[in-house]
Amino acid sequence: MIDREWIVKKTLFVLAMITVLGIILIIFFVARESVPAFTEAGPANLFSATWNPQSGQYGMLIFLAGTLATTVGGLLLGTPLAIGSALFLTQMAPRRVRSIATRGVELLAGVPSIVLGWLGFTVMVPWIRSATNSTGTGVLAASIILAIMVIPTIATISKDALEAVPESHIQAALAMGATRWQMIRRVLLPAARPGLLVAIILGMGRAIGETMAVALVIGPATAFPTSLTTPTHTMTTKILIEMGESTGVQRSSLFAMGLVLLLLAMLLILLVRAVTRQREAAR
Amino acid sequence: MSIDLESEVEIEGPEVEVAGYVRELKDDRVEKIIQGSIARNEKKARIYDRVATTVVWTLALAGLGILAFIIFVILYRGIATALTPGFIFGKPEAMKEGGGIWPMVVSSFYLALLTIAVVVPLGIGAAVYMTEFAREGRITGIVRFGADSLATVPSVVFGIFGMVLFVIYFGLGYSLLAGALTLALLNMPTVMRTTEEAIMAVPYSYREAAMGLGASRWETVKKIVLPSAMPGITTGVVLTMGRIVGESAAVIYTVGLFVRKVPVSPLQPAAPMAANIWHMYTEGALVSDWMRVANGEAAFLLLVVLVLNLGARLIARMYQKRLGMVK
């Protein structure tokens, strides 16, 4: 009996450790594949601004810039909508509207990114094209799509953060004669700030990692985005499009890009942990 | 000292009581200033409140509006195609019009079931360990960090990792199995978290009762905790199915993009719908009606996800009815 318990416990422990093993394997294999890029092309080449595999230049700065621009754009558009929705759901929505809206956020989270990208490609890009007299693809289109992608993430986590603020704080503020907005601005939002920050960081992670939806509306082109509506590339879209038809150092440099994405993701997680630890220390 | 509970500041005559001291006022100018500034502040606060409320309502409705618009447009553009039997059960055409997507439909569901078969034991096992067996400490911290990290890795990185490890290194080739193993890793954090939440919701007294009757920890988990947590677990699994069906970036370099034949064995390459829409976008011009096919495929994919979402909710409700649980 005791023995069986021990076996069960160890087995479950092994299953739990698969998460750790998984992330280690991912880092190891992606790093291993990117070794040739670092040894044969070298870091200076990899982090330069020119991507031209024919002449042996594998700079990823263009794609870093594309990732950065679309992520910032998506967050700027998406965050107000998402936190607004979270405030609405926790503070203002009538009971019936709340349940419908909550379900709506869940559904939005479930829309496959390829479907959203297809909608962007067939409906939104033509709109932007006719409105701005350009190709219609690029940072603007990608930002709009990314905003839609990050709304569920940011809204859901923000909602949890707002709900975690003790009711007594809210009631106290209202009892002091504060209007609802004063209460939200002076009590609710400051109290939930760490949680909201975590929501935005994780939303950022989604935006950086989003591939398909962006790939359909970004252009694509290997050039720095000179305006909001010029075709460009992000790191994820570059990997997606070129991995299938590249070999040697070029393929390896795509893996190096994947490694940079991985490190970015880990960095965000460490950030989230730092923020939450701060909150626990403050209590 | 009596406290004045009325909202207005009452000032009678030329005397005013401030913090216990009676002060003489030369005239009522001070009082007017005080009253006026209170009134102005209150008015300003009320206006701010109203404006802010309007803004928040607008933001939220805009969000919902966007969602409704997305679903409506996708369905509007493709539903007529998506719901014709000839399209769903038809063979794909590479040269002429009127192709269907049957192999892709099968591929999607095959991949989803295969992934679920791998990820559910892993995710539930890990969740049970974290909630019932592990003490909060270094180990759980490490596992959490692993799960959190996995959850933020971009899916295209999962794709190239799966390609290197499963497709090439393990020699599986582009296949449903390689894709399922990759997606199992991708979805493990989600299954783990939803299962943990469901387990946490089981009242502690249940465990105490079982242990009190002499059950071991594992027996308690197996016979009491997991059955009680089943609705939550099932909901999580069904939602995960929706995510697998919609996943494409991690699938393209592990499973494939386009096939003609319905896949039979897990070792064969396949073309899930999501990956096939990408194929249409990149190679579309091969068939003149590629837009029709992709529109139909997108609508059908969205329908599947919507049905799975509704299904998850229904399952949860059914369980609750049967168990008589009130939530």
Question: What does this 3D model show about the protein?
Answer:
The complex is a heterodimer of chains A (283) and B (327). Chain A has 283 residues and is an all-alpha fold. Chain A has helices at 2-41, 43-46, 61-92, 95-110, 113-132, 139-163, 167-175, 180-209, 212-215, 235-242, 248-282, and strands at 51-52, 57-58. Chain A has 11 helices and 2 strands, in the order H-H-E-E-H-H-H-H-H-H-H-H-H. Chain A has a two-stranded antiparallel sheet with strand order 1-2. In chain A, helix 3 (61-92) packs antiparallel against helix 8, helix 6 (139-163) packs across helix 8 and helix 8 (180-209) packs antiparallel against helix 11. A two-stranded antiparallel sheet of chain B has the order 1-2. In chain B, helix 3 (102-133) packs across helix 6 (176-200). Helices cover 71% and strands 2% of the residues of chain B. Chain B starts with 14 loop residues before the first strand and ends with a helix. Chains A and B meet through helix 1, helix 3, helix 4, helix 5 and helix 6 of A and helix 1, helix 3, helix 4, helix 5 and helix 6 of B.
Distance between the termini of chain A: 43 Å
What is the β-strand count of chain B?
Answer: 2
Please provide the ordered H/E string of secondary-structure elements of chain B. Answer: EEHHHHHHHHHHH
Largest sheet of chain A: 2 strands, antiparallel
Order of helices and strands of chain A: HHEEHHHHHHHHH
Shape of chain B: extended
Q: Roughly what percent helix of chain B?
A: over 70%
Strand content of chain A: under 5%
Regions of chain A with pLDDT < 50 over 5+ consecutive residues? none
Number of helices of chain B: 11
Major sheet of chain B, described briefly?
2 strands, antiparallel
What portion of residues of chain A is helical? over 70%
Structural class of chain A, please? mainly alpha
Instruction: Give the overall form of chain A.
Output: globular
Distance between the termini of chain B: 49 Å
